[in-house]
């Protein structure tokens, strides 16, 4: 693997051995083939050339951080994919798969679990449970998952800095094991409290996963593959949802006898992750920039890149560390107070809102009832079909994200979802009068899901990690993740009431929100494709400094070092 402009650069094969006899050998081949088509003419681990397009425009007020015209650069070769990189990404996203599994697993066995709740209540109180209490217990069983995610997402920054990215994900599996055991044994223990507590713990696990996995994957990925590899978090999540939907069928595990096994299977990805993580390196950026362990960072880089000379990557990290050392330690409070972080934080939060308030969870939470309203005789299979489309178009996004760019795909996704929401509304309004509308409504739902996975599904998770340098990144991931989980909870709790009040017009609310998110993305969100972390952060620093001098010319930003206040 030869780097451009480095005639003497050579690779010794460190970390490039292929795991041909192990299960992830095929995953390596598939990922390498996929990502080969996504590569572009940008630096791999090192900084981009001085004066690169897009960054110069940041000096101009109102100019985008990265010009759309830079996407016209012809593709060139980049660093190869090593087995260590594939293994590390695959192991990390097992947590994402488990998160998706627990999002989807609760829907199919709803009636069976409610019957178990009734039997438990009858055994305790010698009377059948009333409908209001049963509804409350079930709603709590579903919603407590999001509450756990909300709480734990605030801890992403603290945990990732204290334990490190890799160790934090390893220890986080304790929550998965405990939560899975409680849910799997809830029937045997005749306890709906065990079920609810297990859902809370698995939600807390998922909240940490939603921050730790994109952070780790983003930090170990070469710049030109960061988008494609970042998409794998969302891909694993939707595959987890699809697996849960399939396993929840009546012919498999969605039975009165086997539903505890269906819920308890959540421990399987955690067990596999614990076996595989010892073979994965820690994030080199964390080791060097946060822990100042240069030798361990170099060793990690050599394993990830397969090259003996990692001086270029180390130079980039040294520059980022130098800038970080001039900044104060960034807490969540300082993230909101410091001007240079306000714009990227606003972008990060709004992108997370665009994911959860798009209406996608309303589709999946209530897809079965929507398909029933559309006149489908076997709605559960249509729901599984929507899950399959969900996974398929996430793969499409993986192919496109390094070609079209993050901003473009997000705009296409939001625009397509908005059109599908309007079509879905029209179809549901005229469903009783025009028989063909049942098919149109299903096509609109499938289109809605497909456009979601092109942009709003995968992009908000990893673009948050791209918008911030090493110092503020953990706090930013915590804030963004908390916003995501909070909106998830709100939509899950409020949608049924909204649907009852608005009827078939409920998706017009989401169409209006999608229009707002489209306009925000068009005017405010920069393209980060091909930019190093430090380049993106530097652009925000220059923009903030320019605005600060215009508004308060005699006041120096207290969050920046003297070199950044120019």
UniProtKB/TrEMBL annotation:
Subcellular localization(s) per the UniProt record: Cell membrane; Cytoplasm, Perinuclear region
Membrane topology type: Multi-pass membrane protein
CDD domains assigned to the protein according to its UniProt record, in alphabetical order: MFS_GLUT_Class1 (cd17431)
Pfam family, any one: Sugar_tr
GO biological process: amylopectin biosynthetic process; brown fat cell differentiation; cellular response to osmotic stress; cellular response to tumor necrosis factor; dehydroascorbic acid transport; glucose homeostasis; glucose import in response to insulin stimulus
Family annotation (InterPro entries): Glc_transpt_4, GLUT, MFS_dom, MFS_sugar_transport-like, MFS_trans_sf, Sugar/inositol_transpt, Sugar_transporter_CS
A GO term for molecular function: D-glucose transmembrane transporter activity
Swiss-Prot/TrEMBL keywords: Cell membrane, Cytoplasm, Glycoprotein, Lipoprotein, Membrane, Palmitate, Phosphoprotein, Sugar transport, Transmembrane, Transmembrane helix, Transport, Ubl conjugation
Any one annotated GO CC term: perinuclear region of cytoplasm
Membrane-spanning parts: none
Chief localisation class: membrane
Chemical reaction(s) catalysed: D-glucose(out) = D-glucose(in)
Entry protein name: Solute carrier family 2, facilitated glucose transporter member 4
